[in-house]
Design brief:
Elements (H helix, E strand, L loop, with lengths): L10 H12 L4 H14 L9 H14 L24 H21 L2 H11 L5 H8 L6 H19 L2 H10 L2 H16 L4 H24 L6 H34 L12 E2 H7 L5 E5 L3 H12 L7 E2 L2 E11 L2 E10 L4 E9 H6 L4 E2 L2 H6 L7 E5 L2 E8 L2 E7 L3 H7 E2 L3
Parallel strand pairs: 1-7
Antiparallel strand pairs: 2-4, 3-11, 4-5, 5-6, 6-10, 8-9, 9-10
Helix pairs in contact: 1-2, 1-3, 2-3, 4-7, 4-8, 4-9, 5-7, 7-8
Length: 416
């Protein structure tokens, strides 16, 4: 009876084998080719033990005993390397080892090397920006960067054990090491904390005011022409002062005769709905990833909050960012919406955050009552933007999308 059961019942047996043979990225291709060959074999020609036969077959496909074919039986020409040449698993493990040991290896480099590597990994920089650090290492920038990465790789090897060192040497090319460093620098050091931005801005403002005050107080040499001009201006000023006194007295009488009015009204905070719709362009990226666990870790590390990433049907999360309001920073999740090729920006508020931004945005009473029921999704509209709101424990999610709000709310799956 085993040969009459569907071949797909053995997927879970072969998938782990495929992953350790060729890695996560290529494993689906190896699986498809293995089961294509199995399905092309008539039932009467299959061995009695189909599972063992499939294990043997996946090893044959991996070894390259048959060229990859497409669905019509023709040779595949999609640019992928032959399955026999793939080394995905070793590269994935080597990258994982490098990610774990990179902070220690970076610390083992010199201060100049660490500074140059961090600056270069932070994004595209002109030679003029890199040169102040690069010239402390070598005469030209290219040599300095090469030497810095060479020291980083050497330090990485010193941190690792024998098998791990072998993996780094054979399965982690220079381009992958640069990608690991860029991801680490981006995740660990960007952006600067909102409080630090505020403190630095205050220091700059104070120093600018002090410098301008010193320049204003500095004595200046005056010419006879300037003295005569000053005397003329003084006489004119006295005349104007007399007119102002007379005008001021008249104004005072008018004010005295005018009934008193109340204090000037203070600006009214906008609703959280309008605030969210207006601020989607202010979100600064922190990490681009489709892995919910990685994004949750960023929110935990940067904001000290434990947030479960919601799911949106026909959309996938692609990155996490931050919106800074004064000294308060609000995390935001970005989803790529396949239904209309738009972007869904989802702010992750909390009641504490809403209290902190109360001077600019407030949670409407009717909205607060609606969110009392956890996991219920509410819909609102602000201009052309459609918003969906729901609560998960103390977290309040506000999703802003150009798509129809009601259909979006039906697609949202709050974390349980």
């Amino acid at each position: 009876m085993s040969d009459r059961l569907p071949l797909t019942q053995h997927i879970d047996t072969l998938y782990p084998i495929a992953r350790v043979l060729v890695g996560d990225a290529t494993a689906p291709r190896l699986m498809r080719e293995t089961f294509r060959r199995a399905a092309a074999t008539p039932v009467e020609d299959r061995p009695a033990d189909v599972e063992a036969w499939l294990v043997e077959l996946i090893l044959e496909v991996r070894a390259g005993e048959e060229t990859d074919l497409d669905e019509d039986g023709d040779r595949s020409d999609n640019g992928d390397p032959p399955l026999a040449e793939t080394r995905g698993f070793r590269r994935e493990v080597a990258r994982s080892v490098a990610e774990r040991a990179l902070p220690v290896a970076l610390a083992a480099c010199s201060e100049q090397e660490r500074a140059l590597l961090t600056l270069q990994a932070s994004g595209a920089r002109t030679d003029d920006v890199l040169m102040p650090i690069a010239k402390t290492i070598a005469e030209d920038i290219e040599t300095a960067v090469d030497e810095a990465y060479g020291e980083l790789r050497a330090a990485l090897r010193d941190v690792l054990s024998g098998p791990e060192r072998m993996l780094i040497d054979t399965a982690l090319p220079d381009a992958s090491l640069e990608e690991v460093l860029t991801a680490y620098v981006t995740d660990a050091y960007h952006p600067a904390p909102a409080r630090l931005r505020s403190d630095v801005a205050a220091v700059v403002d104070r120093e600018t005011a002090r410098r301008q005050g010193d320049e204003a107080d500095a004595p200046a040499q005056r010419t006879p022409q300037e003295d005569r001009l000053s005397m003329h201006l003084l006489r004119t000023g006295v005349a104007l002062l007399i007119l102002l006194v007379i005008g001021g007295a008249a104004y005072g009488v008018a004010v005295w005769l005018t009934p008193p009015s109340g204090p000037a009204p203070q600006p009214t905070p906008t609703s959280l709905v309008e605030f969210s719709a207006d601020r989607i362009d202010g979100v600064e990226p922190l990490l681009r990833s489709s892995d919910p666990d990685s994004l949750s870790a960023v929110i935990q590390n940067r904001f000290g909050r434990t947030v479960e990433i919601p799911k949106v049907q026909n959309a996938r999360v692609v990155s996490v960012g931050a919106l800074t309001v004064d000294t308060t920073t609000i995390p935001a999740l970005l989803y790529a919406d396949s239904s209309d090729a738009g972007t869904i920006t989802t702010f992750v508020y909390s009641y504490v955050l809403i209290d902190r931004i109360a001077s600019v945005a407030t949670l409407d009473d009717d909205l607060a009552r609606g969110l009392d029921t956890a996991d219920s999704v509410l819909t609102r509209q602000s201009g052309e933007a459609q918003l969906s709101l729901w609560r998960q424990r103390d977290d309040i999610f506000v999703a802003v999308s150009p798509a129809d709000g009601s259909s979006l709310s039906d697609r949202i799956r709050p974390a349980q």
